[in-house]
Amino acid sequence: MRRAHLNRLEAKAPRRARALLAGAAALAVLAACEPIVRVHGYAPQDAQIEQIQVGVDGPGAVAQKIGRPSTGGVVRDNTWYYVSARTEAMAYNSPEIVERRVVAVHFSDDALVEGVDVYGLEDGRVINLATRTTPTFGRELTVLEQLFGNISNVGSTLAEGFNE
After folding, report:
1. 129 CA to centre of own chain
2. Is the same domain home to 72 and 122?
3. Which partner from 45, 85, 100, 131 sits 20 to 30 angstroms from 125, CA to CA?
4. What region holds the Outer membrane protein assembly factor BamE domain (predicted)?
């Protein structure tokens, strides 16, 4: 009786192992569907921005309340910019910016906070700074057209050499 019971358990073991393996594979597939999220930069949240007092706080107080900026003004150094972006990428796709936050703290000539502006992704414009491609004019050639075109060019260059 005991031996028959053990034989039945041994027969169920491969089925359980297959079921566990199938479950693990399903979890792996589902985990692969999760986007890869990256956050770059730092921009203070609304609660931190509310601590800044316009006309009262100077650069030292702002730095103490929300930290130093990631960048300053280009022409004049009277604006501090805090920039953060969140990107998501699915599997092998290129990352896509899903959230961007820019906080600009403007200082007056007296070095007091003049105003604070908050910009989001919807406020920006897409500017492609480095495309890493060179635009070409004309039509694009297929691989075969390129090969046969080069062969005919070599032949005409050789023929010109013989005519001289």
Report:
1. 15
2. yes
3. 45
4. 41-115
